[in-house]
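Case study 2.
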Amino acid sequence: MKSASILSLRYSITTALTQTRSPTLELLTQIDESLFCLQIHPEFSPIGWHFGHIAFTEAYWLEQLAGISLNFPDADQRLFAADGLPKQERQNLPAVATIKEYLKTIRSQTLDYLATAPIAQQERLWRWLIQHETQHCETISFLRQLYQQRYLDIASFNTYQSISSENMVAIAINATEMLKVEGGKFTIGSDAVDALDNERPAHQIYLNTYWIDRHPVTCRQYAQFTAAGGYQRREYWSAAGWQWLQQYPVNQPLYWSNDADWLDHPVYGVSYYEAEAYSNFVQKRLPTEAEWEKAALGASLNCNHGHLIGHTTPVDTYAETSHSGCQDMLGNVWEWTASWFDGYPRFSPYPYPGYSQVYFDGQHRVLRGGSWATSSVGIRASFRNWYHPQVRQIFAGFRCAKD
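Prediction:
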């Protein structure tokens, strides 16, 4: 690589690291100390742990690349390693000021190293580290919202109760325009330098013709499902979904509002099982991740992401469409798909097997598209997210498809 290209690449990586760190530090200033060490949900680490983990991960790879000391006491190294302590044992955290100093000191060492590092050989790792930081910042964002949700008085949504369930189905079926996506060969995945291991390698598959919703399902549409007794009617739920519902008898999405101003926003805070049940209610299904990605090709970054708005927006806020004509494919809310998370053919783990490969366990469903809190570095049609199907805490909604 020519020296001018090396300088350009070095500048690009340094700029991306700096631009990524600014919102991280801004988030840190917004976290009350009483919330910092609190484990808000048993499946997620405390908010403060994520800040320490960001610093630790950067320090770890700096040590691997340059032999620079971690600058972490042994106890904190075990605390902040992803495979260190169980989540329920991560509440005994250093002071906020200590973690902030970790972030500052390690970043200073990183930037010093980057001035002379063999950047061309390391670019993929630096792109991974940048995305890793933004992913944990999004986790912090939904943990904050989950905490705030505990203090909201959320009543059951009773609008439309006077409409018969039969008419409700007809309304819901016709409420969303569907777009036809022609069958044929399609290249799924990406080989770009910033593509994560689970996006690789790009490979060709064949898809039959299918239809997909122009927009994600809105609160207005989902209210029809709840008003028709969707949470009480077994016929809409899979066996696993019904079992989950009996164990956790919810009757509306986690992030729900009765405010009429939110009716055209995408529904979110739903589990995979709820998305699946609604799809059955309207006689559709969830798209596979391949169908979702093909429909999303050509979608632009002119969308609700990166805390630009600070919450969801109505599904038709951004007029630009993907090549298939779909809107809101990127940003706003993650979208559940029918696919189990697994490696593509010839998958190779990077930078370590624990990042993706350990989750190829047949217990995680794929989500696509990003949310209003997802950074621009993690917004693209090929990006794959994954969670257990019962998880509701993430900023996840869905759109429907049919054959």
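Residues 119-149 form the longest helix (31 residues).
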